[in-house]
Write a structure and sequence with these properties.
Elements lengths: L6 H28 L3 H4 L2 H19 L27
Length: 89
């Protein structure tokens, strides 16, 4: 059975949403059990990941890459000299 092309993003979004909800509930239970606050209960690698993502977003927001140089120079358009009369066919 072939699924429609829009089905894959829906499946991915649903999976991520379910994973986030389960993670939030598990984190809330862990915090209740240990008595630690939200920030203290987040692992250090997760904090580092969020810092790296934040830095990447800021860099991409403000970074303006240089425009690519053309490979070959464009030929100058043929224009008659100002001192010579224009040729007429």
């Amino acid at each position: 059975m072939k699924l429609p092309s829009w089905m894959l993003p829906v499946i991915v979004i649903a999976f991520v949403a379910i994973r986030v909800i389960v993670g939030i509930r598990m984190g809330a239970g862990e915090r209740r059990r240990t008595g630690r606050g939200w920030f203290e209960s987040v692992p250090i690698w997760t904090k580092g990941l969020w810092v790296l993502i934040g830095i990447a977003v800021v860099v991409l927001f403000f970074w303006e890459p240089r425009k690519a140089k053309p490979l070959a120079p464009e030929p100058a358009p043929a224009m008659p000299d100002a001192g010579q009369p224009a040729r007429q066919p």
